[in-house]
Every structure is written in C-alpha cells, then in structure tokens.
Amino acid sequence: MTIDRRADIVSAARAQLVEQDPHGISVRAVAARAGVGASTLRHYFPSQKDLHHAVLATFFDETVADLRIADPLIPAAERLRECLEQFVPPEITSDSLRLAVSTFLGPAAVPGADEIWGFYADHARGRIRAWLTLLATEGALNEADVERHARLLMAIADGLAIGRMAGAERPTLEQEYLVIADAVAAVLG
C-alpha cells in the first residue's frame, strides 16, 4: 500500500467495478483489495455514496480534462472553447448516445442510474464552473455571472449531445464546434 490510502481505496473500488461487479461496489471487498480495514475505508469514505462518487470522478476526469485552461498566454476564449469541445468528442456516435440515454433514463434503466447521471451532470457543471471561475480571476468575465454561464454552457453541451441523436439533420462536428465557439463568445464577449 502506498502512503495515499485514499487513492489506493479508489483504485481498488474502480478495479472491482470494472472487473467484477458492474452493479455495485462491496465495501468489504474494496477494503480487502486495498489492503485496509473496513474502518479505514469508512474514515476516508463515510458513506458508500462517497466512495461511488470518488470512483465516478476518476472516469469523468479521464474524459474531461483542464487542458490549457490555466495558461494565461493563450486567449481565454480559445482555452474555454477547447475545454468545452471535450463534451462533444468525435468518437461518440448517435447510437452510443441512444444507448446511454436508455441505460440511464429509459424504462429499462439500471438501478442507481439516476444517481450516476446526476453525479456526472453535477460534476460536469462543476468543472465548467471551475474553468469560468479561473477565467473570472483573469478578468475574462464577471465573477457574479459564473454560475449562470456554467448552466448555460452545460445546457449547450447537453443540447449538442441530444442533437447528435437527431435524424438526418444531425449537426456535423464542425457545426457543433461553431455552436460552442458562439456560446463562448456570448459568455466572454
């Protein structure tokens, strides 16, 4: 075990989720896999929900990074646009989006799917809020507008994802990127 027990526990829980049990994380199994007692696990993660969210965050953080958002040598609009484009990756197809929606929101949704969907939505908005807060400290926008703009940008990203599921009129990647650029211009304009 490394010095960072919390990271070891999250790693063990993630491995269990991926390898063994896609429907849940067993606290005892995670503790054993991490080489800690259940009480140590509970010290770092008082509830199972806390542990679930820590694991989900690792998946989110692999797909949505901060990229160059903190580099003041690059124009703020360019940095924010690059970060937001991660919400519409080219490899995500209409079929995969339909599957995700039916898995998480449809009548055959898996148990706990609404919690996962909610976590990702909150985490995504939080990430956008963090980007905007950083840009506000640089004077790119008013700090009082950060939350409102985070919700606007999240709604646009969500709308673009839904648009990918549309029929023949679905937007191209270039069109999606133009919408993001327009949104960034409106927020930072």
From TrEMBL:
PANTHER family: HTH-TYPE TRANSCRIPTIONAL REGULATOR BETI, HTH-TYPE TRANSCRIPTIONAL REGULATOR RUTR
InterPro entries from the UniProt entry: BetI_C, Homeodomain-like_sf, HTH-type_TetR-like_transc_reg, HTH_TetR, Tet_transcr_reg_TetR-rel_C_sf
Keywords, sorted A to Z: DNA-binding, Repressor, Transcription, Transcription regulation
The protein, known as: TetR family transcriptional regulator
GO molecular function: DNA-binding transcription factor activity; transcription cis-regulatory region binding
Ranges of the DNA-binding region feature: 26-45
Organism per entry: Mycetocola tolaasinivorans
Residue ranges annotated for the HTH tetR-type domain, each copy included: 3-63
